[in-house]
Amino acid sequence: MCGIVGYTGQKDCVEFILKGLTRLEYRGYDSAGIAVMEKGRIGVRKAKGRLKNLKNLVEDNPLKGRTGIGHTRWATHGEPSDINAHPHVDVNHQIAIVHNGIIENSYVLRRGLEQKGIRFISETDTEVVVQLFAYYYKDDMLNTLYRVLPMLEGSFALGVIDQHRPDTIYCTRKGSPLIVGESKEGNLIASDIPAILEYSRDIYFLEEMEIAVVEPAAIRFYDEMGNFIKKESSHIDWDMEAAEKDGYAHFMLKEIYQQPKVLADTLNHYVDLEKMAIRREMMPFSPSEAQALDKLTLIGCGTAYHAGLMGQSLVSRLARLQSECDMASEFRYKDPIIEKNEAFVVISQSGETADTIAALRLAKASGSKVAALCNVIGSTIAREAHQLLYTVAGPEIAVASTKAYSAQVLVLMILALDLAHLRGRLSDEELKAGLAELAALPQKAEALLEQKEHIQYFASRQFNCKKIFFIGRLLDFYLAMEAALKQKEISYIHSEAYSAGELKHGPLALIEEGTLVMAMTTQHHVMDKMASNIQEARVRGGTVVAVGSSPTPELRAVAEVWELPPVDDRFAPLLAIIPMQLFAYYMALQRGCDIDKPRNLAKSVTVE
Ligand code: M6R
């Protein structure tokens, strides 16, 4: 949730760190700070609020040095404030650290240190760690890490500088990601690849409890037991442009507009479009595994969970395979029944969501095969799963997920078709026809984006509304859940997703004159039912928009229709989400919200 960056080399570290923090601001943005080794002493600047406050502070009160660490924070322990911002230093001002994650036993550790006479100045769990380092420090930081790390419960990614070795950064991780980058200009550490991509494309991914000792011209790695280890770097070939706004007002808008390309790239990754055949080597299940499966469980959080719901519905319907979707945050606490022939797909854009990692580990421990549907190669989830189902969406920066969701849903559609075919539920011809439908989606998505003015105008009339209902049946209900999440997340309008058939069992009481109801109507076999549900809302004063293709006259009679290009019902939600994303975007824009960095949220939730 927070961001870490550090540099040690021959150049001034401040520029490297501030640039890295700028790229990480989407990870957390309630305060930021930097610690620099200045002539053998640690200089610290911290500021509450957005990164620009820190930049102004550093401009007014400069720091200069060749080794330093920086942090952008999303508060967990202690309110956002200058004091609680990272880096934190020990009482003697000899060690400074930045930390992502949560130290779950910090209260006990703090009490112990206080009893030994150590005075704390912040409310954070991180300060406990730096005070422990100082208390147990003998003559070397590496030994100190081995002494203190076993005392820490919870999750951490740590970057540490120590006055005794002024050109060295120590770093380690447990449950929170951390990478080390090599470059000609010096070496870097970071919590996320975009932070250092400008300088380094040769990245080392730290495994749990590994320690890296990073010097200007050397990087050494040690395992949990203190053994020196040799690690291979991974070359990252992302385009730097991908981490820029490219002339769009917001990352979210750029990412919405990237969707036709993301769909095409993801499709190409899994499907040979000339032969209209699925690339077998990309799929997680061999024909015999697919036939032997008794159950497929999908797991994710937030938007990834919504993609999973779509996936489980398609897998059950097309492949006639029992399939469920669980929230990762609930999975490990519900004492799940795991079948003998059950497999899992864990879904995560970032690959670093703490709850999803825990679910993955639990599923693996049961002996089941686990595939990861993930957008970040090298992330914890991508590395730990038995097989990676990669979404070719490129870096997603806006907190509200758009293109990653579309790519996730598309891969799940391909998986459902594949399983259906392998289990004898779809003929070769039917599979080809399904793939051909998918292949037509990027162009249709492009056409839909051209309708943005209409949505923008609608938002300009509705942006003051107090609540919105998103309703639908079957796949459209899951679509409604995602549409409602987008709306509440960035426009802060109370948005409820409801299964349309359930309206009259309670929520209809909330519909009054002018209540906005967005009805998802992509499933033709229940379109008449939807028309009745819409009518129920309309006669109570609701203003209804229906989103779908080829609407029936009955539907047109009861709602304003936002029409989609003609599309197979099974795949229609992938198009219908686009106007819903644009609608959320323009509502938020009208309301003056901070679209890319909505209040109280962070891009990846690496704490439980
Ligand atoms: O990185 P992940 O896909 O694991 O993240 C899961 C959720 O935190 C994420 O989808 C969240 O709900 C988004 N902000 C939704 O737009």
Word description of this protein:
- This protein has 608 residues and is α/β, with parallel strands linked by helices.
- Among the domains are: 3-237, 4-Layer Sandwich (Glutamine Phosphoribosylpyrophosphate, subunit 1, domain 1); 446-594, Glucose-6-phosphate isomerase like protein, domain 1 (Rossmann fold, 3-Layer(aba) Sandwich).
- The chain is 36% helix and 24% strand.
- It has 20 helices and 27 strands.
- The strands form 5 sheets. Strands 3-2-4-1-10-9-11-15 form an 8-stranded antiparallel β-sheet, covered by helices on one side. The chain has a 7-stranded antiparallel β-sheet with strand order 5-6-7-8-12-13-14, covered by helices on one side.
- α9 (302-319) runs parallel beside α13 (403-422) and α17 (475-491) runs parallel beside α20 (573-590).
- Bound molecules: 5-amino-5-deoxy-1-O-phosphono-D-mannitol.
- The site of 5-amino-5-deoxy-1-O-phosphono-D-mannitol has 16 residues, from α9 and α17.
